[in-house]
Amino acid sequence: MAKIRVYELARDLNMTNQALLDKIRNMNIYVKSHVSSLDEETVAKIKAGFNSTSTKSEGVAEIRVRPTIIRRRRIVVQEEPETKPETQEEEAIEEVEPEEQLPEPEIIKAADEVKKPDIEEKQEVMPQAKIEKKPVQQTAAPVKVFKKTKKEQPAKVLKLPDVEKKPEVLEESQPSQEVKPVEQIITKTIDTPAQVQPSEHAKKPVTHLKKTVEIVPEIPKKADPIEIIAKKEETVSEKKKGKVRDKREEDPDFKDKLLFKKKAPFKKKEIIEVEDLFTPEPRVRKEKKGAKAKAIQGHKTQLTVPKAIKRRIKIDDAIVLSDLAKRMGIKSSEMIKTLMGLGVLATVNQTIDFDTASLVATEFSYEVERASFEEGNFLKTEKVDLSALVSRPPVVTIMGHVDHGKTSLLDVIRKTKITEIEAGGITQHIGAYHVKTENGQIVFLDTPGHEAFTAMRARGAKVTDIVVLVVAADDGVKPQTVEAINHAKVAGVPIIVAINKMDKPEADPDRVKRELADQGLVPEEWGGTTPFLKVSAKQNTGIDDLLEMILLQAEVLELKANPNKLAVGHVVEAKLDSGRGPVATVLIYEGTLHLGESVVCGIHYGKVRALLDDRGMKIDEAGPSIPVEVIGFSGVPMAGDELIALADEKDAKQVSTYRVQKQRSKELAKTSRLNLENLFDRIQEGKIKNLVLIIKADVNGSIEAIRDSLNKLSNKEVKIDIIHSGTGTITESDVSLAAVSNAIIIGFNVRPSSKVQAMANEENVDIRYYNIIYNVIKDIKNAIVGLMASTFEEKFLGRAQVREVFHVPKFGAVAGSYVLDGKIERGQKIRLIRDGIVCFEGKNSSLRRFKDDVKEVQAGFECGIGIENYNDIKVDDIIEFYYIEEIKPELE
């Protein structure tokens, strides 16, 4: 027999390594550790020692210093019933019945109910076993009877009376001991090879618990009743083992395998409450050596979805992708992948619009709501009080084609000379004027007639009550006339036609009536509803009739407003004045605007610091239908913005701040949006040439007109890119922006300072100055044409046939040719054709007639033709002359 190690012998003896080491050392055999080798003689000596002690332990229970908890219980269950007479078992049954009521006949359930008394009795048995060693030896015979009983057991089911007998026998051995400390605190000794010394207050109960249990190597040989009682007496540590305990009962070798894996012996004491003994919750215990924690199997952590109310996110019209991911608790990378799956390319810091955010949120089971700022809470609309309404002057907009005399007609009414002030004699600003007549007050809006000012005409039609359509009697209906009619029809306002320039000899009012009838404006004398009046601004005729018709039409409309409320109006025009700051021409149509009131207009807010009428005079208030210039805005508002007066300046600032953020979000969403559909278009845009412009003008309306006109000039090859526009003079920041972006600055009715001009010269920035919109459009057209690629077309000149080939020294081959048709010119491109196939394309090097160099030769004449760098010329070859013509592009 070869040598065997200590842990192998411990496994054969069904013991722990530490217990075997202690036993060997008690036998005065020196071993160093559980991996030490033992020879054959030593192994036999150890086994002989175990046989003697195991026989003794069955009767005397002598080995109790380092046993495991499970084996202590089993020895109590095995030996105690055999050493006790049957009379004591019957008495035990009688005593247990009144104390414990077992409602169900199941064995395991009964074991659980009598668990606490069993623990108490086990603590009291061992002192009796110590005192009465001899009686235990005398009861060796009943042990044999127990083995006989084992053979008679057919199944592992124990009746309820047998379960009750076992604990009562233990209780009779020493009934006088107190067990209160065990009920309050139980010291649990974990099944380990080493032993932990208990605390002083729990020392006595733990000592009895240890003495009660003995090690029995014949655990697999026990009868079924003993196995069930062992389950009943299971302590806290056994309960905690859960699945390990079940495997040990089914497989006896499982415990040895488990103990064999433990390399480092350790001891641990855990103090728990009595209530915790019966709780099924898993507890985690950590080993001292090693970072891993061993936990009893429990419920796995489940991923939970937030409640529906928490899966609802409120955002504005646009949101940064990283912010949305953070609010949803999702990684930005996951959101980017999801967006790519939806066909949208986005980065972490990119802004996505509301619709895109809704789509990606739906993929993660989230709902997106629009967190709209309730402007209604600040801009409260009051109910209309009919009793407070008073009559107001009508707002009349004068519309028509350019040069049809609109402003001249208004000059006659106002007795002013506005036409002489306007550059080029055309109106390029929308003007609002208040006129007092003998029959009442009228407010006039003068709109431009040029095609570039479409937005101004549309804006004028929206805020007006009556439209006066001016048509020249000598010119008839023109495109802007038709456009003005359409604007008036869309706005739903009545139209009064004024046929102007009746003083001219070529005036034809009937022609005007016919052409307007085709547009749906039928004169009253023809059975229609549109009044036609003949006027002459130059001769000052028909003006009174026109004013009377306007007031009559206003009376029919019953125009009324409430002046006793906060003002509401529309911005007709706005500009940046160098001395006064932002100035807006506002037409009040409801309420009264006072000095010092807080107002909000578009994205800007302010406090009314000055009010000026149409003649430049300061006033303190402006009522309904009164046009005024308002000074005090934080910025230049856009033409057409609504002006609202508020009682509190804080409310105005809050509304303005919200509108600024909203506009900024929209701009970010517009500029940064990129998806798979337009990705190729963006790449192709790199091939398109851009004409970058910066527009500065005196008023906002002129900027709008110039921008709209220039954007129409863009085509497939050249794109107009207006990177900045604003009112006021040209500043250093404008020059810096133009220098960086290679832009051209267009100044309309504005001039830079000498310092800005010097900076522009240094940076080589081109600044163009204009005061007539015609010239702006003309110059930009020429610039676009210069950027567009020219097309080339081949033009045929003539053909010549080779009759003879001459070889001239230093010149090479010369073709003596006859001009068949057309004409041939020296220095033009040629094409050599042989048998209908083009053999060579090149350039003519020389052209001679007889001995003279000539520029051209007409058809029917002979000449000598030299081809540059080519000598392979043969008789009957055809030489074709042509040239390439460059065709410059034209804008429609």
UniProtKB/TrEMBL annotation:
Coiled-coil residues: none
Keywords: Cytoplasm, GTP-binding, Initiation factor, Nucleotide-binding, Protein biosynthesis
Record field: transmembrane: none
Annotated binding of GTP, by residue: 400-407, 446-450, 500-503
Domain Tr-type G: 391-560
Keyword GTP-binding among record annotations: yes
Subcellular location: Cytoplasm
Any one of the GO CC terms: cytosol
Chain segments carrying region Disordered: 79-103
Location of region: G-domain: 394-542
The keyword Isomerase is assigned to this record: no
Its job: One of the essential components for the initiation of protein synthesis. Protects formylmethionyl-tRNA from spontaneous hydrolysis and promotes its binding to the 30S ribosomal subunits. Also involved in the hydrolysis of GTP during the formation of the 70S ribosomal complex.
Family: Belongs to the TRAFAC class translation factor GTPase superfamily. Classic translation factor GTPase family. IF-2 subfamily.
Protein name: Translation initiation factor IF-2
Organism (species): uncultured Desulfobacterium sp
Underlying gene: infB
